[in-house]
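Section 3.1: Structural characterization of target chains.
Under the original work plan, the team committed to producing a structural model for every single-chain target entering the pipeline before any wet-lab resources were allocated. The record below documents one such target. The sequence was received from the expression subgroup and is listed exactly as submitted; it comprises 197 residues.
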Amino acid sequence: MANSSLIGNILGSTIGKVAGNLAAGGQLLATGAAAWQSSKETKKARAEEQKNYEYNRDYLNSMYYRDPLSATGNRSLLKLRDEQRADNLEAMNNRAVASGATVENRLAAQKAENQTDSRLISSLLQGEDARRDRISNQQLALENQHSTNLQNQHYQNAQTWQQWGAALSDAIGQWGYASAQDWQNKGEVAGQLLLGI
């Protein structure tokens, strides 16, 4: 009767340890599956981030290197100035004919128109410099945001794998503890059987 009680204890203990090992293995598998899924999602997020980054970078580069005269506002302003210049020169020629103005007077009026053109072009170029400075700042912000996003993704990925490693370590520890307990119990039972207790 004592032997059947010991065998029952051994079987109960062994079944409990097997169930514990299965639970630890299940936890390990679940954590591994979560780590794998998280890694897959991180790769998709990284690819989407890269695609958005490249699109915005290319757009800002095209805006930075755009011809200042291709901007609609600048073209309209220059066209308006050309029309105004033509009107002014026509009016000056009409007055010169009517008043008998000298060539020097005409050249002075022409010089005034040229100075107005020069001021307009200078103003457009200053506006272009300011626009390029704004775009440079946007490019820098884009680069910083992209770098931060990549760092966050790497950090999240590292955390996921760290959790998986901890679960693996825990499962191995539980298995090792259960195995050690099992061997200890088997040694005690063997000793009891030998002694005939």
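The chain is about 95% helix and 0% strand.
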